[in-house]
Specification:
heterotrimer, A mainly alpha (about 290), B mainly alpha (about 290), C alpha/beta (about 300), A: mainly alpha, 2 domains, 12 helices, about 0% strand, globular, C: about 300 residues, two-stranded antiparallel ribbon
Chain lengths: ~290, ~290, ~300
């Protein structure tokens, strides 16, 4: 009798501990929101929401100072779009290759390579970008190399593993009878893959693209080394001109900022955070839609 | 007849082209990887020497030794914090939580959100909360806490996946023999899920080794002359070391950045190899 | 059959890689270097706003324009901004049409330092005052310094300290330095600030530690303004700055001049120019001149 009581007791205690551990994630998210917003929102209020978001002038060291991050928001969007344009087609094709066309003994070789690509630290991508991609763009495409183009190229490579692994597993998850039906109608393997299997794996592919966007928007250290960090007025932004993104704005200026400037940089982080929240929301939307189907 | 032949040929040609394109993309991906690896390793490895690896840091050697020690500290201590929390959370989600429960929904949402937050935002949070508000200053301690939150989702999702893959017959057998639920979890489920949990841990190690943006503002850029377990001092990890070397103006710092990059790549190589090995073991286990 | 297929794939991958590597290695030393096109756009390279080098350079070159109460940095739109000296060097080394500015002590044969108004950027010319693009390296502290900090500052201003300074191609500022004798103190000194001062600081710390092995240092190098800020709020003992203090900063801090450093204007080695007028440099940085052909 005594014994049972004791086990019940420890059972309950442990269950409470499990629950608390699980709840730490929620606390962490709340804490991150709370403290970022606590430091960021007052600054946005002081600068003025419109002046902060829709002003393209960033001059924290000027008197009077101006804190507009529109140019960086647009910069982040451009760079991410570039990464998607470069990374998605290659990544998707590579996923199809791995799932459908790759002989087993090649697969043994390519799959770990993709995983390794995912594991390489972003600082190495940045260094590689500075030493290889920037000169390449300068010699072959124009401009001085530090540009939206270089950042897009590097980010395009960096999101490859995300796109490849998630798309691959969603292509593999398509039931075999889809393909069999298509073969039965006399379609070639290629037609089957592109017209039947790929559309069936749509939601997985979309998920991979959104995760890719998330990675590209949030990437800092690689971008700071190849984008040139110039704050560009909107009408001067070009593919082969330098750019500053939300993330690089934070990392280049945080170390010396103080007062309102520092808070403005944290507000930049808040904007970035809101971006990510929106992405996550759309992700769970896709997930629940896929589950309903 | 002629026309349909023509059509068939066209279709065949199109199919061939698609196939070639798909192969090309596969080859391109591997090519990019090999290029990056060769580029860093070929320039880095000739610069690695004993002084660089194990010597004392000064402006001549730019030794990576203190940074290696700092990285190991960072890995061990943040795993000590987040592995128990992460695994417990996974146990809760996989074994105890009822589906559709509001708390469970909130927890899953939180884990997904944590996984999506960029490292620079973690860095900002760590700077505001641990460095300033809690007053840990720029120190290894602040870095460890920041990193622990960052790797939590990695550990949770791979552990949950691994726990879910343990066949129900195991649990039923144990419960049938009169073991409590708790005993079943600790003695039957966790050991069977161990390879999966470990591969999550290794992934987390990879993430810590490669992290820069979250650490610059939290654990800082200082190099300890005598590497030691000093949680209250600012210390730079290998990735931060590489970043600093790529920014400093000393004539040989660029070569040493390549050398540091090579060490990082070798570390990532080992981490990936270990994960693949473990994943292979899980595959075999579930085939039994 | 299968094996040969795989072999051919591996061969193809290797070939592709070789082509890539081959390309990137040849281009920088290619023969196109001979034709320096004066009509190409100048690539303007600047430091990030945290940098003391930037603060000093933009001030001296009048890129910062002061009018009444306003003070605006007129750096040309599209100028590259880097948070480290080495990145500036790498950018100018790689871009034939680049122009940048770095500490004189960091000049190497990767790039070319040009004369300004006909005066070569050498230690002698900075010392004599002929080369006017220079700024002080400052160590700042707040309030009463501890004995340890005092001792270290005494060392930096001693014969030994100033010798190290001069060896690093900076210009020792102390007129008649005294000899330093080891004090045998112990403790930790926390230093933060300029990335330009950091290499010199590191050498000084190494020499100081040889004499006083019980002293340890903690150094953060993230820019002059960070160092000044850290000294003011007391989180660090000593701040390093590579620019002059602003009025409101000077009120709060003790100011020690460690050395004088020239700022070298650097261009690519292929650039035929070796002498620039300071007005032209200003115009280039303000975007009033965009091509090398317009530079006298």
């Amino acid at each position: 009798m005594q014994n049972i009581k004791r086990t019940n007791f420890s059972e309950n205690i442990m269950q409470a501990i499990f629950f608390l551990s699980a709840f730490i994630s929620v606390l962490a998210v709340l804490a991150i929101c709370l403290f970022l917003f606590m430091r960021g929102i007052p600054a946005i209020a002081e600068i003025g929401f419109m002046d902060f978001i829709f002003n393209e002038k960033w001059g924290p060291t000027n008197t009077p100072a101006s804190y507009g991050i529109l140019s960086m928001i647009v910069g982040s969007i451009y760079v991410t779009a570039g990464a998607i344009v470069i990374g998605v087609p290659i990544g998707l094709m590579c996923a199809i290759f791995l799932a459908e066309f790759c002989p087993d003994n090649v697969y043994k070789f390519v799959k770990p390579a993709v995983n390794l690509l995912a594991g390489i630290p972003s600082i190495i991508y940045g260094f590689f970008g500075m030493e290889v991609v920037v000169p390449f763009v300068r010699e072959n495409m124009g401009g001085n190399g530090y540009s939206i183009m270089s950042a897009s190229l590097i980010l395009g490579i960096m999101i490859l593993p995300t796109i490849i692994s998630i798309s691959e597993s969603s292509i593999r998850a398509v039931p075999d009878n889809y393909a069999e039906g298509s073969y039965g109608l006399g379609a070639t393997k290629e037609e089957t893959v592109f017209k039947v299997v790929l559309p069936a794996a749509k939601s997985g592919v979309l998920t991979s693209i959104i995760l890719g966007i998330g990675r590209a928007v949030g990437e800092t250290m690689a971008v700071v080394m190849v984008a040139g960090n110039a704050v560009m007025p909107l009408d001067k932004i070009e593919l082969f001109k330098p750019i500053r993104t939300l993330t690089t704005n934070i990392v280049t200026e945080m170390s010396y900022a103080s007062g309102l400037h520092e808070s403005a940089l944290i507000s930049t982080g808040v904007v970035l955070f809101v971006f990510i929240i929106i992405l996550n929301a759309s992700l769970s939307l896709i997930k629940s839609k896929a589950q309903r189907n | 007849m002629d026309r349909s032949m023509n059509n068939l040929n066209k279709r065949k040609a199109k199919a061939m082209m698609l196939k070639a394109f798909v192969w090309l993309c596969g080859i391109l991906t591997v090519g990019i990887l090999i290029y990056i690896l060769l580029f860093i390793l070929l320039r880095g490895i000739p610069n690695i020497n004993l002084k660089f690896l194990f010597g004392e840091y000064n402006s001549e050697t730019l030794s990576a030794f203190s940074s290696i020690v700092a990285t190991v500290q960072m890995i061990v201590l943040s795993l000590l914090i987040s592995v128990p929390i992460g695994v417990f959370c996974a146990i809760y989600l996989a074994e105890y939580a009822k589906r559709g429960n509001k708390a469970v929904k909130a927890i899953r949402l939180a884990v997904d959100t944590l996984a999506g937050i960029p490292s620079i935002v973690y860095g900002l949070f760590g700077m505001i909360f641990f460095v300033n508000i809690l007053g840990f200053r720029t120190s290894v301690l602040s870095g460890i806490f920041t990193i622990s939150i960052m790797i939590l989702p990695v550990i949770i999702s791979s552990s949950e996946e691994a726990i879910k893959q343990v066949p129900d017959t195991y649990r039923e057998g144990s419960l049938g023999l009169g073991a409590t639920r708790l005993r079943t979890v600790f003695h039957i489920v966790l050991p069977s899920a161990m390879p999966g949990i470990l591969s999550g841990v290794i992934l987390a190690i990879g993430r810590i080794v490669g992290e820069t943006a979250a650490l610059i503002f939290t654990s800082g850029t200082n190099v300890l002359k005598n590497p030691s377990l000093n949680l209250f001092a600012s210390q730079r990890t290998l990735s931060v070391h590489m970043y600093m070397l790529a920014s400093e103006g000393l004539p040989h710092s660029r070569n040493m950045a390549f050398a540091t990059g090579s060490i990082l790549i070798i570390a990532v190589f080992i981490v990936n190899y270990a994960t693949t090995k473990l994943a292979g073991r899980i595959g075999r286990l579930s085939n039994d | 059959m299968k094996n040969s297929k795989i072999l051919s794939i591996i061969a193809l991958v290797l070939m592709l890689t070789m082509v890539f590597v081959g390309c990137s290695k040849e281009t920088p030393s290619g023969d196109e270097a001979a034709e320096f096109d004066l009509n190409k756009d100048i690539t303007v390279v600047a430091r990030d706003a945290a940098s003391g080098t930037r603060g000093a350079f933009h001030e001296i070159m009048k890129i910062i324009v002061k009018e009444n109460d306003t003070e605006v940095d007129k750096l040309v739109v599209g100028a590259l901004e880097f948070d480290g000296t080495d990145k500036v060097i790498t950018a100018v080394e790689g871009d034939e049409y680049g122009i940048g500015y770095i500490s004189l002590g960091s000049v190497s044969d990767r790039i070319k330092a040009v004369s300004v108004n006909g005066v070569e950027p050498t230690v002698e010319n900075v010392k004599s005052g002929n080369y006017t693009v220079s700024r002080p390296f400052l160590l700042v502290t707040k309030g009463n310094e501890s004995d340890l900090v005092k001792d270290f500052l005494k060392f930096t201003e001693s014969t030994e300290g100033q010798k190290i300074t001069n060896e690093m191609n900076f210009i020792g500022y102390v007129d008649s330095p005294a000899d330093y004798t080891a004090s045998g103190m112990s403790g930790t000194i926390k230093v933060a600030g300029s990335t330009s001062v950091a290499p010199l600081m590191e050498k000084l710390q190494e020499a100081y530690q040889e004499l006083n092995p019980d002293v340890t240092f903690e150094t953060q190098a993230q820019g002059s303004s960070q160092g000044i800020k850290a000294a003011i709020d007391g989180s660090y003992d000593v701040g390093m700055s590579s620019r002059e203090l602003k009025e409101e900063e000077a009120k709060e801090l003790n100011r020690h001049v460690l050395a004088i450093d020239g700022i070298a204007v650097i261009v690519n080695k292929e650039n035929p120019k070796s002498d620039l007028a300071s007005e032209d440099i200003t115009k280039v940085y303000k975007g009033e001149i965009t091509k090398w052909s317009e530079v006298k």
